[in-house]
From TrEMBL, chains A, B:
Family label: Belongs to the TrkH potassium transport family.
InterPro entries given in the database record: Cat_transpt, TrkH
Organism this protein belongs to: Conexibacter arvalis
Cellular localization per UniProt: Cell inner membrane
Keywords: Cell inner membrane, Cell membrane, Ion transport, Membrane, Metal-binding, Potassium, Potassium transport, Transmembrane, Transmembrane helix, Transport
Gene Ontology CC terms: plasma membrane
Top-level taxon of the source organism: Bacteria
Protein known as: Trk system potassium uptake protein TrkH
Stretches of the chain forming a coiled coil according to its record: none
Main location: membrane
Bilayer disposition of the protein: Multi-pass membrane protein
GO molecular function, one term: potassium:chloride symporter activity
């Protein structure tokens, strides 16, 4: 039996338990508040104003504690699916609000407009990496650090959620982790408890970031890449691990030596794998977890195909040759497909084949259970198998065959969820692209249909850079305030995988 | 029990009954052969060579009779689903081959290359209306007539099929008609027999074409539109009824007076309705069949929204104003959404909002049970309802609710078919667009990603004109031979709704 709540009615006439929801959201906000200490310290050493960072941190922690206080003495014995969905939607909506505060408070010249600050913070915490900042090099040190940190924390998001939220849930937790981390695949518990599982994933994430940082810093230290300072090593390692894409360099990864580019390419490939499988391979030393995985094979196939197509374009148009062409092709294919968004070249100057390949890659995404966005590999795998199964059924009616992934039958409910997600994804993408051109017409901004398609795809897919003026050497600064808000919404929807937000619009969600 | 066949083994080791399939395809070819008499007569009066038309007609009729002979004395008591699917795929592949013959034989200057002739014939019989002819006005009279006639016959395709094929089927016929004509909605029999139903639909199609021709000719006769000769009246009325889009005028419908444009707009709106419902309203005088139909409402909503968006673009960019702007917006929205492809203006010069709207409309299509292509309204309706149902299910697990159209529960098998079709459609579209840019790179043709997207969408959707050089004032002549073949394949796949072709690629199709 549940214990009564003092200040909020238990299970109000709404279908969700708002007390439990606020409690969980408050927990996340308190943790995020602590993170502001890092940019505050940077500001201190940089001789800049510290108070915007402290004020934002205090606001987040205070807000979190207030929510906690409101739901004081509440014991959450159970949390329902709907409560969990609302938590996810709210966390990814509210955290970037607090994350945007210091940009406004510090009156960061290129980010002081609230709509721009919110875009940049949303882009950070959703690990999208698109920017409204035309000149990244001019940002203050603290802002630079906070941007990169927001990626890294955002990439940890699910694991933060797993540590702060899931252990408090008995029911729904598994489902939460399932929807957020592992996508539509069956979650495999790595530890005895969910809390233990989450901690291990978090350690893996931290450990891999550390290794990548050290390797990159070493490359700089031995003189192979003079631009790779320890700070740049951490900034890009954390950005790559979160598949975020922010870079303190205006030129993105083009600023670094070939060896650093290859290393970052490898980091993206690894970060684009399912963390549960990575854990089995790296920690439990069971390489079969990767080599025998259907999703890994399709991931490799897509990466190889995309690299080949880009290579053909680069070689035949004479943009690059030799190792340089292979590096540019592999890096850009990996960066866009894993939804990182780094660039080693301005791909907007490449031809139609490269443009089409990169646009299609924005709809591919990395593996489920990674920090990447977009549709994700395992869903494409399931779509292919659903199509094959249902086609066979068109020929032989009455024969009912299951869809398998890794030899295991996927239940029909999971298949329907996959289809639902993909349909919603394409629907929201199309609406977003249409919204951008409508607003472009209203605001008198010249916006081509293709650029709108690219920007909508790059934002809902949490990729970051798109085409045209929003390309890797440009920014989203040209968009009107309303369009910036639309793009912010697309990043949010993409990150929470739409369904947690879309269900809020159904009547039945709010019914008991 | 079946009777034994003499020359072909009954039910060979393949899973399909090729004897029955060839018999049905042969029947269609014999009828198509007769149609060549019309352009032959035109060539005769025009003083041009008659033999290419007679030879093509003889080839089609002879080919059909040969197939009939091969399957001599066969009594088709039953035809399976797979046989029916193969018939559909073959009919739409072979009829355009014979249809293309006279273009090659007559050495029509702009159509003498076989790949171009096949494209043009496929575009005709699939009622797509895209052309590889840069200068339509220079085509011979017989070619002009054959192009328009191929639309009209193509639009009748399903009814020809219904008359020649379905009465011979006991099982599968209903399913055939369902997949071809009514799309995913339940077919409603209008007559006592399927043959009777088909005849009535065919009469309606002929009757509506006649009425539209007479109205347009009357407009020309009373001097309201000097360009509207009786020939132009028939050419455009038949093109509009089949939602085809070929025009003997290089300027398409821009060559005519506003009143003719409004009339053609209305014809397209009517032709884009479900013919089964049109029959109920016009012949059986039951207007509720339309006013109470969910699909009709969504059709109206899409048309009104698209017209509004185009109007906003035209007015705000100052391209047109007043009645002219409304006419251009309504005409173009109707033409592209119903997949006709007529134009009253070169919409490729319009801005991003119009371009995006028109591109999205290419994925909408007309009603099921019309001669239009693309995804079609009722499928969008079902997708919306599937999404709504499955979202509600995400909030309240375990509650299983049916999806209804017009108050009637749609069975889960039909929903799955709808989803399968839409996924296949988008998949083939993406592959087609990618194929075009790959081939563009190979052939050294400058092809932007957006133009490739537009051309693939316009061809698989059986719309016709696209963007860029393939716009309404242009043609597909710039594409390489291989790309022309890709586009021809997309028109074919779109017309047969992919599944009849896609199942041929599954192993189980060919198994008994
Ligand atoms: K990203
Ligand atoms: K058409």
């Amino acid at each position: 039996m549940r214990q009564r709540v003092r200040r909020m009615p238990r299970r109000p006439s709404l279908g969700v338990d708002l007390g439990a929801v606020f409690d969980l959201v408050g927990g996340v906000l308190r943790w995020i508040g602590v993170a502001f200490v890092v940019p505050a310290l940077v500001a201190l050493f940089d001789g800049a104003s510290v108070w915007p960072w402290l004020a934002a941190g205090a606001a987040a922690t205070g807000g979190g504690m207030l929510l906690d206080l409101l739901t004081h003495e509440r014991r959450i014995d159970r949390i329902g699916t709907r409560d969990g969905l609302l938590v996810i939607a709210l966390v990814w909506l509210l955290v970037p609000m607090f994350g945007a505060l210091p940009y406004v408070l510090a009156q960061e010249p290129q980010l002081k407009a609230p709509v721009d600050a919110y875009f940049e913070a949303m882009s950070g915490f959703t690990a999208t990496g698109g920017t409204v900042v035309p000149d990244v090099d001019q940002l203050s040190a603290a802002t630079q650090v906070w941007r990169q940190l927001s990626h890294w924390l955002g990439g940890m998001g699910i694991i933060v959620l797993a540590i702060a939220v899931l252990p408090r849930l008995r029911v729904g937790g598994r489902r939460l982790l399932q929807s957020e981390l592992a996508g539509p695949t069956e979650i495999e518990r790595l530890g005895a408890t969910i809390r233990e599982t989450a901690r291990r994933l978090w350690s893996l994430y931290v450990g891999l970031t550390l290794v990548a940082t050290l390797v990159l810093a070493f490359v700089g230290w031995v003189g192979l890449d003079d631009a790779m300072t320890p700070w740049q090593a951490f900034a890009h390692a954390s950005s790559a691990m979160s598949l975020g894409g922010f870079s303190p360099q205006g030129a993105s990864v083009a600023a670094f030596a070939p060896i650093s580019q290859w290393i970052l390419c490898l980091v993206m490939v690894v970060a684009g794998l399912n963390f549960l499988r990575l854990f089995r391979v790296l920690v439990q030393r069971r390489p079969r977890a990767l080599t025998r995985d259907d999703e890994v094979r399709l991931y490799g196939f897509f990466l190889a195909s995309a690299t080949t197509l880009l290579l053909v374009e680069l070689l035949s148009s004479g943009i690059a040759s030799g190792e340089s062409a292979l590096r540019m092709a592999a890096f850009q294919a990996t960066s866009i497909m894993t939804t990182t968004g780094f660039a080693t070249a301005d791909y907007t100057t490449w031809g139609g084949l490269a443009t089409m390949t990169l646009l299609l890659l924005m709809f591919v995404g990395a593996s489920a259970g990674s920090t990447g966005g977009s549709i994700k590999i395992v869903r494409h795998l399931m779509l292919f198998r659903i199509m094959r199964r249902d086609l066979a059924q068109s020929a032989h009616r009455g024969v009912q065959r299951p869809v398998r992934v890794n030899g295991v039958v996927v239940d029909e409910q999971a298949l329907r969820s996959t289809v639902l997600f993909v349909l919603l994804y394409l629907f929201v993408f199309a609406l977003g692209a249409l919204g951008l051109v409508i607003d472009g017409e209203r605001a008198g901004v010249e916006l081509g249909a293709f650029d709108a398609i690219g920007s909508a795809a790059a934002c809902i897919g949490n990729v970051g850079p798109a085409f045209g003026s929003a390309g890797p050497n440009g920014s989203y600064a040209d968009y009107s305030n309303l369009s910036t808000a639309i793009l912010t919404g697309l990043m949010w929807l993409g990150r929470v995988e739409i369904i947690p937000v879309a269900v809020l619009l159904t009547r039945s969600f709010w019914r008991p």
